[in-house]
Design goal:
The chain is mostly helical. It is built from 19 helices and no strands. It is found in: Membrane.
Length: 444
């Protein structure tokens, strides 16, 4: 009985103590005296307690993490957008650059620039104006690009029928005709203006006339008559004359050497090309001499005849004082080499021999122009102009010197004796006029 009363009293004490101390940790400490010395249990229990009731610092940390994730996502999106924009820009520039390169026939235009630059060097004196040479080459490149672009604008339908040209920008649809016309007009006007401002009006006029001749006469004539090949040869002969005019300011007889060589060189070059591509030319509707010449004999004969016309060009360059005698010998050897390929094609009219003549023509032109520049001499016509101007001033200077000497004799007479007084050394100096005879004092 007393045991039952003791247990009831103990239960009441425990309930009273729990009401007085609501902290569960202190109650646990009272129930387990060893709990205070157990750090592991305390830390784990406090962790559970703190996790169930988040405080303000935890809320701030969660907010900062969310802001960081959002900022990272925004930065990644902006980087992706900028990289995509840069890729698109590079793609657009690459596309139009490739189209303009093909539309301008850049390799052919650079060959035209090379001939114009050679003409400029040949027309220069002992000192070559490098800035003028660069301006001339840049203007020639622009005008050539414009002419080639207009040529493709007028031949869209023809190029679409030929295997060799159907992948060009206009027949393939990569550019529109209006875009090509705008490009051609811009570079053509810019090139002609550059030549007019930095070279002279003669060079600009030659460039503009060559553009009109190529785009509006040669291009439509390709579909009308085989004489278009000779018209195209005239077009190819003008650029070196343009370079000469830009350097010398005029056109002289020895300035016609390189244009004449280019004119005769183009005939075997184009005859070989017309024979090799005769099927394409027939499909495109072009009137070439090789289409009516089934056997190829007439085509080969025309090529051989114009190779023979190149033989005296080297001699004329030496005879007219443009180059030394070595170039005459070298030019003859070069011409005999290309003439040999033309003779081989005439005797055996095959595709192999036509291609050999074509390759020989490609090698002949740079070698010929290099020889011209290597063996070139100072322009005799410029030196003659200088000599003539110097000789024209001699009589007037001599007359003035004689009249001055008479006046000096009158002034140097001694008033007392009437005799001439010996002039000082400064009056006897002839340094300003080295072409005058030295004074004589034999009568003193």
């Amino acid at each position: 009985m007393w045991r039952t009363s003791l247990s009831l009293s103990s239960k009441r004490l425990l309930s009273l103590s729990s009401n007085l101390n609501p902290n569960p940790i202190s109650s646990l400490q009272k129930r387990s005296p060893s709990f205070d010395s157990s750090y592991g249990g305390l830390s784990s229990f406090s962790h559970l307690y703190s996790s169930t009731i988040p405080n303000e610092s935890n809320k701030i940390g969660l907010g900062l993490n969310q802001l960081g994730i959002a900022a990272t996502a925004t930065t990644t999106a902006s980087v992706d957008a900028s990289s995509s924009l840069s890729r698109d820009l590079v793609g657009v520039v690459s596309h139009y650059g490739r189209c303009y390169w093909e539309l301008s026939k850049a390799k052919l235009s650079m060959l035209v620039v090379a001939t114009s630059g050679t003409g400029y060097v040949l027309g220069s004196g002992q000192v070559i104006d490098l800035a003028g040479l660069c301006y001339t080459c840049a203007g020639t490149m622009m005008v050539a690009a414009s002419a080639n672009s207009l040529n493709q604008v007028f031949e869209i339908k023809n190029d679409a029928k030929m295997k060799r040209t159907m992948q060009r920008p206009l027949p393939s649809g990569r550019l529109t005709a209006s875009h090509a016309i705008a490009w051609a007009s811009t570079v053509g006007i810019a090139g002609t203006s550059l030549l007019a401002c930095k070279a002279n009006a003669l060079a600009a006029g030659l460039a503009a006339s060559n553009l009109l001749l190529y785009a509006f006469i040669y291009t439509p004539m390709k579909q009308l008559h085989p004489v278009n090949t000779w018209v195209g040869a005239v077009v190819g002969a003008i650029p070196p004359l343009l370079g000469w005019a830009a350097a010398a300011g005029e056109i002289s007889l020895n300035g016609m050497i390189l244009p004449a060589a280019l004119y005769f060189w183009q005939i075997p070059h184009f005859m070989a090309l017309a024979y090799l591509c005769r099927d394409d030319y027939a499909a495109g509707g072009y009137k070439m001499i090789s289409l009516a010449d089934v056997s190829g004999r007439k085509t080969a004969l025309v090529a051989l005849r114009n190779c023979l016309y190149l033989v005296p060009v080297g001699y004329l360059a030496y005879q007219w004082g443009l180059t030394s005698g070595w170039f005459c010998l070298e030019s003859s050897l070069f011409t005999l080499a290309i003439g040999g390929t033309a003779m081989s094609f005439y005797l055996n009219r095959t595709t192999k021999n036509a291609r050999r003549m074509f390759l020989a023509s490609l090698l002949y032109l740079p070698v010929f122009m290099s020889g011209l520049m290597f063996h070139r001499l100072y322009n005799n016509w410029q030196s003659c102009l200088v000599d003539d101007s110097a000789t024209e001033t001699v009589p007037s200077s001599r007359f003035m010197s004689e009249s001055e000497s008479v006046d000096n004799e009158k002034q140097l007479k001694n008033p007392a004796s009437g005799k001439l007084v010996r002039p000082p050394v400064a009056y006897a100096s002839v340094a300003p006029f080295p072409f005058l005879p030295a004074p004589s004092y034999s009568h003193y």
